[in-house]
Amino acid sequence: MRQLNPNISDPQNVSKISRRSFLRHSLAAASTLVTPYFIPAKALGRDGLAAPSERIVLAVIGHGPRGRYDLSVMLGEKDIQFVAVCDVQRSRRMQAKEMVDNHYGSRDCVMYRDMFEVFGRSDIDAVLIATGDRWHALASILAMKAGKDVYSEKPCGMTIREIQALTEAVHRYGRVFQAGTQRRSQENFQYAVYLAQSGILGQLHTLHASVYVPRRTYDWLAAEPEPPQEECDWDRWLGPSPWRPYNRRYIEGRWRGHYDFEGAANFLDWGAHTLDLCQWANQSDHTMPVEYEANESGIVGRYANGVKLICDFLPDPFGDRSPQYRTSTGTCPVRFIGTEGWVETGDNGQIVLSNNLAKTQQRKFKKPGTSAAGHGRNFFDCVKSRALPVCNQNVMRRSHIACYAAELSWELARKITFDPVQERFVGDAEANRRISRATREPWSFNV
Amino acid sequence: MMMRRAFILWAAGSFLFAASVACVGAANKTQEWIEVLQSETSVFEKAQACRQLGEFGTKEAVPALACLLNHNILSAYARAGLERIPGPEASAALRAAMDQTQGKFLVGVINSIAALRDEKAVTALSALTRNSDPQVVKAALLALGRISNDEALPLVRHALISGPQVFRPDAAAACLLAAENQLNQGKADIARSLYDAVRGARVPASYRIGATRGAIVSRKSDRAAFLIEQLRSDEPAIRDVALLTIREIPSDELATALNAELEGAQRDLQIQLMTALEDCHNAQSLQVIRTKVQSDDPGVRLVALRVLATIGGSDDASTFLNVIRDHVSAEELSVAASSLEQMEGTEVDELILRALGLSNESKPTVQLIRLIGKRNVAGATDELLRQAASSDPNVGVAAFQALKSIAGFDELPSLIALAKECRDDSVRDAAVNAVYAACKNNERVHQSGALVLKELKASTVTIERESWIRVLALLGYAEALPAITATLEDADQKLVQSTISHLSRWPDPAPIDALFGVVEGDSNPSLRRHALMAILQLATTAADRSMATDEELIVWFRRASKAVQSVQEKRLLISGLGRVKHIESVQLSASYLGDADVKIEATYAIVNAAEPLVKGPDYKAVRAVLKKISGIQDQRLLDQIANLQRNIKSTAIRLNK
Question: Are residues A312 and A426 in the same domain?
Fold first, then answer.
């Protein structure tokens, strides 16, 4: 029998796929974008929304820039309803409430400072986790423990161990999980992956994933007086991260780059997307590269099947991306190279092909940007059907851990070998020490 | 302000810097970090020392770190260090700390013990399950669940069944952790008994849901039957988790069970089960789904179609064709059409063609024709030509559009004949596009052009002549140019107007001279303007594609400049001049510097055209032009001008040496 989902695919049986069979999986989200899978038109209420019994009731945890964006996109879905918003910052809570209330034309959305109050509401089916990185894994796990399905922004955890813990919790509590790596739901990336998987590029040999130049600081910003807890709950903002003195710049978004608040030296900011696409192109959702070695311009990985993975550091990611990539393809490009040609694509939606393929395989796609619309739709459909979303826990686990392994080769400035089954570095105590980080009491991933 | 400390690592991509830091933090630094911990230095310094010890430190650092386990700020940093230091010393220190800490510090210590899965801590943890602090009890139970050795298992099981009610949810979570570990170790029976215990406990639903999933996957012989039993649960959440678990354990046996269950399931569950069959199905599943495609319930039918599109094969083409024929709903039609579009095999092509032959309603016919076009069915031309002659404009348009990708030279006479007979504008437009595509889609482009030219020469009907001119102009068929340009003299002003439009799209600048004839000789001002724009377009395209020499281009632009009047015309002219790297182009552009409407454009054109000239003998002439530029605010432009002036200076020095 055919096995269709990445997590149950037979690793021995990866082969060339037809356009039809590829589209069956990858375009599922796009196809349901227009007509929700389970809601026949006649079941819709007069207001165009799904009948209350058919709606997925949601809360958003964390309302920074990305949360705001996700919320704005998801609010457009007719068969869902956001009823609660949660943020440790009062101004953000109020912003989120206003956004939700304005959308629904009511004042019903409830604000929370404490996510546990949200998790305690039995009417909430699912949560959107869009906090800072330090909270993604733990908030997701706690939500699932409370019986909620989860859409979590990436990176879904700060360490390899957090990713493992998160994946285990998805299974342990029997929930639906979608990682916010929305490119798997976007047509230009799907098409590029199709070209790789179908054999049109020939035998794949090199995969390029663009990433930021890694950066990290261990500094603390100068201490400032803590605001009242109602304005910003600093202790809860820190969550599982170790304590440090308050500084308003952290809560304004300048936590990025700080070791305690961002895993893998910013590698996953793009790598969670681009390396994930390489995983997909190489039909490696069940595994990951076995070797990684950093150099001045990037990190070179190697899969067990011999395919090379090159994570290119882009010094000017929003400007000129040459010579590695065509600037015209937009931010976060990927390039897949086979014996018969290559394809490159990025956030502009443009497909760039090697000359020999340009005539026959060229397609035009709309600029996808960072839209999570189709990806959110896929999640909502799966909440209803209990199918696995396109970026489910198993897919996310491998691509995220591969990112952490790659970054670690940069951090240690040497070649490292990884066992994708044990998810440990081979004969490398120094690397294995960095698989996890302790959490600040009372927080724990042991839940 | 950043606090500046010795531990700063703002790597910012510095690979070598990272390497040196790794070196600095090597094991032999352990003593230095210990000294930091034992000094009177700041919390920040000590926090960094803890981290460094976690990354590089040896067992000698354990006592110094353990001393901080009661520190209000540094306890978490200390545990971070301890958790990472290899060897039994760290675990021993954490065990010892269970007697020396309380409250949140004790919880932290227990959490670290759980992270390290310290089996030697079970007795002490067991005692802590009776602690007066509820947070300590919870942490202890979960730690026991994580450790889950033979000693710990009865403790968590007992807490679930006989422990205080308030801690039963935590005991349930501990049992789930323990069962997971047992399952990973291949001890499925133990895992199953733990999962069953949680399923039967009085704990919140989320634990029972997780336990149900575990109980399914940990079963062996009766797994499918047990899963089906859960699908029949009265609790929606239990049904849901069973549905989710199907995806983890697909098998032929389970598919058979699901097929059977689908028959009698309630409507909503039917829909969910059909979707589950996408991930777990066998040969019989197809038959079940095919039956559901016939359902009276539109929701069931739609999902059945979608599932059939996923798991079915070309054998199901007729099912989808029936959907198109019956055209019940837009959603079903869309699923059927997209499924047929992606289906492989010539037998599918034949089925679609046969269905088209039998179709007598507009919408299905259009849909089938579109499918043929998308599938590029080679043997469909005769049928498509027949459909193209339909009296229904929608069918006609669809047929001509499909012929665009299929028709070639052999079909050209028929297409021309059909195009001549069209009475509907939209159909004629589609027909002419099909004629052009048929001309382009074959190796005999010249012969194709000749055929169309023959029609042009023979036709006296304006609309036909306009159509053939359009095709010939798009083809750029040189032999047709005299016949086409002859129409510029035609009394029918509408035809002249459209001819000029078509000539502006000629692939090379060949029509320019004829168009100048209109610009300079026609009495109709509108036609003159129109022709001028066409000239500027052709000349600009020729410049971009290097289809003319700079001298030819200059002649055209200079000649055109005498006719330009409107701002739009001037902008188009200047835009073209900017592409010609010739001093006359620079000078001609300069003549527009005094025109406020196009001053900026003229400056850009000068800068662009002059760029290579400043490095050669024309630099003086460029310098003279640059002196005329004034009043520019655009900083980017000013920078470019400054750059040109610098180059001029260096050229002057070089050439005057």
Answer: yes
The total number of structural domains that make up chain B: 3
What pLDDT, in 10s, does the model give residues B191-247? 999 999 999 999 999 999 999 999 999 999 999 999 999 999 999 999 999 999 999
Among all chains, which residue has been given the structure tokens 């308003």? A248
In this structure, of A169-173, B625-629, B634-638, the range with the lowest mean pLDDT score is B634-638
Distances (CA, A) of A132 to A138, A255, A258, A276: 11, 8, 12, 21
- Indicate whether A178 and A206 sit together in one domain: no
pLDDT interval class at B27 (50, 70, 90) = low
Instruction: Assess whether pLDDT exceeds 60 at residue A352.
Output: yes
Q: Which of B56, B76, B97 represents a domain boundary (last residue)?
A: B97
Q: Would you say the C-alpha torsion B622, B625, B631, B633 has a positive or negative sign?
A: negative
A23 has a chain B CB within 8 A of its CB: yes
Do B248 and A8 count as a contact with CB atoms less than 8 A apart?
yes
pLDDT of residue A48: 58
What is the arithmetic mean of pLDDT over B70-77?
Answer: 97
**Residue B529 shares a structural domain with residue B648:** yes
User: Looking up tokens 């908030």, which residue turns up?
Assistant: A139
DSSP state at residue A318: T
A416 located within any domain: yes
| Higher per-residue confidence, A317 vs B454 | B454
- Structural domain harbouring B407: 313-443
Minimal CA separation from A209 to chain B, in Å = 16
Is the pLDDT at B296 greater than 60? The verdict is yes
- How far does CA B322 lie from the centroid of its chain? 33
Within this chain, do residues B437 and B515 fall inside the same structural domain, yes or no? no
A84 and A194 together in one domain: no
Per-residue pLDDT, A319: 86
Question: In this structure, is the dihedral angle defined by the CA atoms of residues A175, A179, A185 and A191, taken in order, positive or negative?
Answer: negative
pLDDT of B174 higher than 60: yes
Q: Does residue A259 fall inside a structural domain?
A: no
Q: Which of A134, A218, A293 is the mutation pick for testing B, counting most B CBs within 10 A?
A: A218
Domain boundary among B79, B97, B115: B97
Nearest CA in chain A to B135: A442
| B299 to chain A: closest CA residue | A40
What is the CATH number for B388? 1.25.10.10
Say if B494 falls within a structural domain.
no
Interface touch A172/B344, C-beta < 8 Å = no
CA distance B110 to B125: 8
Which of A24, A215, A441 minimises the CB distance to B111?
Answer: A441
Mean pLDDT of B252-275: 94
Residue A19 CA from chain centroid, whole number: 26
